[in-house]
From TrEMBL:
Coiled coil residues, start to end: none
Protein's name according to its UniProt entry: ABC transporter related protein
The entry's keywords: ATP-binding, Nucleotide-binding, Transport
Pfam families documented for this protein: ABC_tran (PF00005)
Molecular function in Gene Ontology: ATP binding; ATP hydrolysis activity
Cross-referenced Gene3D superfamilies: P-loop containing nucleotide triphosphate hydrolases (3.40.50.300)
ABC transporter domain boundaries: 20-247
Family designation: Belongs to the ABC transporter superfamily.
InterPro entries: AAA+_ATPase (IPR003593), ABC_transporter-like_ATP-bd (IPR003439), ABC_transporter_ATP-binding (IPR050763), P-loop_NTPase (IPR027417)
CDD domains per record: ABC_DR_subfamily_A
PROSITE patterns on file: ABC_TRANSPORTER_2
Record's keyword annotation contains Ribosomal protein: no
Length: 311
């Protein structure tokens, strides 16, 4: 069946339109099942974080919504249009750090104008849009420098600007602040925060500060294991048998038993461990708490809480 012309807008009870709908989507790469029977509605104007261990299918989810990959089962709709269709693609911007999507021997401004014109903007429109985005992303002063002279953090901001040149409704961000310095990170996080309500953002992330931006956190490990509204504490509530947690600092008793993880590496370790328990351990809740520690450093606390009766 061809979905290109079919329009299905999912409107929630609360009036929200589903900007992106993963309707029982499966994606395989040969024998690898990257995404399996995923059903997810992303309401318009919300920021949703996809969280999960390496290889969990997060990037695949983004590429499906970008119309770069076709699902093997189910369908992906963007505002009711098949994600592979031109109508859908015009409404989506995709930023992935691995994507060398800008020309190093052009200035940032010329890059953005080039991509804007490709999307059908007039030269004047593209120039104005590029100027606005570069200013908003703190690159105004370097707009006419060659991209080859950009730092990683500047490059990342430019890639976000590129993804937004055609003013898409949906922005897909793959680990937008990984591997960049604190100032660039802060600038990108503030920019994403400013998109709330104006764009629908799906971000794949391992980073608590990115996750904290989200209105909803979706834990995925090939299948969606849990969806939870964003809260102040990352708590990964699990159901199942968790033997290997001896490497973690388990605190509390009974219903209040939990593990505090204070570094992102430890958090990832925990995620990987849970991935190995796939099928035997079900994650039933995730939540992030970001506490401001003394001095300027921000201290992250991720909590894995184990509840008696859920194990
Ligand atoms: N083009 C491809 N060809 C073959 N296998 C692929 C391809 N893309 C992804 N995979 C596989 O699909 C699975 C999901 O990969 P994906 O990149 O979506 O995970 P991820 O959650 O984004 O991981 P990470 O956190 O490491 O970025 C992995 O097993 C990966 O090896």
């Amino acid at each position: 069946m061809l979905w290109g012309e079919s329009v299905i807008n999912v409107v929630f009870d609360n009036g929200f339109v589903s900007a992106v709908l993963y309707d029982h989507v499966t994606k395989r790469f040969g024998r690898i099942v990257a995404v399996e029977d995923v059903y997810l509605e992303v309401p318009e104007g919300r920021i949703v974080a996809l969280v999960g261990p390496n290889g969990a299918g997060k990037t695949t989810m983004l590429r499906l919504a970008a119309g770069i990959l076709a699902p093997d089962g189910g369908r992906v709709l963007v505002y009711g249009y098949d994600a592979m269709s031109v109508k859908a693609k015009r409404r989506v911007g995709f930023m992935t750090p691995m994507d060398r999507g800008v020309y190093w021997r052009l200035t940032a401004m010329d890059n953005l104008i080039f991509f804007g014109v490709l999307y059908g903007l007039s030269l004047g429109e593209a120039r104005a849009r590029a100027k606005e985005l570069l200013e908003d992303l703190g690159l105004g002063g370097r707009a006419n420098d060659w991209v080859a002279t950009y730092s990683t953090g500047m490059m990342r901001r430019l890639e976000i600007a590129r993804a937004l040149m055609h003013d898409p409704d949906v922005l897909l961000l793959d680990e937008p602040t990984s591997g960049i310095d604190i100032d660039a990170k802060r600038s990108i996080l503030n920019f994403i925060r400013g998109l709330r309500g104006r764009k629908t953002v799906i971000l794949a992330s391992h980073d608590p500060q990115e996750i904290e931006l989200a209105d909803a956190v979706v834990y995925i490990n090939r299948r969606i294991l849990n969806e939870s509204p964003a809260l102040k504490v990352v708590k990964v509530l699990v159901k199942g048998s968790v033997d290997g947690l001896s490497g973690f600092n388990v605190e509390g008793v009974g219903d209040d038993e939990y593990v505090i993880v204070t570094t992102i590496d430890k958090f990832n370790e925990l995620m990987s461990m849970l991935a190995m328990y796939d099928g035997r351990v079900r994650v039933v809740d995730i939540d992030v708490e970001v506490a401001v520690a003394e001095g300027n450093a921000r201290k992250m606390e991720r909590v894995l809480r184990r509840r008696e009766g859920w194990l």
